[in-house]
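Reviewers asked in the last cycle whether our approach scales beyond single polypeptides. To address this, we selected a multi-component target totalling 512 residues and predicted its structure end to end. The input consisted of the following lines:
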Amino acid sequence: MATYYLNVPLMDEDVVQLKIGDLVYLSGPAFTCRSRLQRYIFDEKNKLPFSTEQRNLLIHVGPIIVRENNDWRLVSFTPTSSIRFEKWGAKSVKEWGLKAIVGKTTMGEETAQAMKEHKCVHLSPQSVSPNLWLDSIKIEDVYLFDELGTIEAAWHLQLDKFGPFVVDIDCEGNNYFEGIDTIVEANKKQAYKDLNIPADFKYTKLY
Amino acid sequence: MIKKEVLKNVVFDTIKKGSCCIPKDVREAFNSAIANEKTQKAKEGFGNTLKSLDLSIERMNPACPDTGWPLFFLKVGNEAKIEGGFMALEEIARNMVAKATKEGYLRATMKHPLTGYDPGTNVGMNIPHFTYKFVPGNDIEISYAAKGGGSECFGGTRYKMIAFADGLAGIKKFVIDAYAAAARAGAICPPAVLGVGIGGTGNIASALAKEAACLRLVGSHHPEEMMSQIEKDLYDSINSLGIGPMGSGGDTSVFSVNVEYAYTHIAGIAVALSSNCWIARRATTRVYSDGRTEELDNPNWFDGR
Ligand code: SF4
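The resulting structure, written as structure tokens, was:
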């Protein structure tokens, strides 16, 4: 398990070295997105109003941002669940040229496959620590604010050692949480015994 | 008679505290987890979260940007009188939720379920939600719970009807299987405060589970031996699974298992679980009939726990 400090724009060589379980801190430009942005672009066929070439880091998040003295103030920020956006995951990786996505709950097979083909990783938080992150995030700009509202708009951010996040999908399609699943499944067998649940227990089918 | 002016301040402060300041018993649960975890990585998961939670108390900003469903639980003295009646209290609560949203203590999170329309206030059809319980006396106790979206949406909250033939084994299996699946990859932001409701109709079991998850103290026990034994057995077994902070592996997989029950129909047993995410936000204030107020660490929703 290694720790990496990476700069955006991310290059292929930055991300292919990452292995599941490694920790990553990120610096440089990034943008935010939730489902309404992806629906707006991919389903409703609108054009993304900015280039992601130098900004190939996407963060799934619904931040709290308030308008104060003609400026934006970031009040709270925690990556949200990526799996909800699985429907557009592969498309986002491919069409936006993403090299990393930050979010909770990992992503599904289709996105992992696209990540393998296009060299991209998924990164998960191990804490819910908005106040430790606030100091490492500056708001640069916002797009589609009127169309999508404050939570779902595409915020442009400038990051300074934003992290740590654990690599949960690497460029070879490995998933960190599958390792945890194996441990949990094995421990469950003993837990059933401790709880007096017979190994061959079957529910009476009521419906 | 409790005056509207008093209620406005109390409700607003309770929402603010509920969103920004985690309860003492939850803070203690973080400290025990940091002490008990074996790996540095898991210790850091809890440690960084606790550091941020403490900063939220200092800065009075939301403990998490997901400020959740706005839920009010009211313990009402049977003789309590409110200026304008209880409809006035509900109107005040709606206005204060909107005010707390405008001022950044809550995120505008509540939307129309189909159109996605966001009023920007967290106020809409049946939201915020009110649950009442009547007790002797003339005070009222107002609890606000900010029920996180992660812990509600990914299988941490659900119910099943079980045949009597399947009994306790069926109940325990449903709880442990559902919880482990929901905690996968940190979906419900584990370790949760897990509420379990047994018996009643599906919605009675679900309501008991939700109240046990949102209002009972971490580490409290049901007064009946049979129920507290189920709590202990499930707590030990779930904590042996290895789920850890945000599902990334560790020794602490659940903070508390709180069981409540209701008598049920001879036809079957409803079992419901409700997971409250690890930051388990709530705040309670008592308002006396003469207008004095008091902040309470324990909502004491279920008598004595
Ligand atoms: S479920 Fe997770 S993201 Fe939502 S409020 Fe709880 S800790 Fe925050």
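Residues 143 and 284 of chain B are 4 Å apart (CA to CA). We regard this as preliminary and will revisit it once experimental data from Aim 1 are available.
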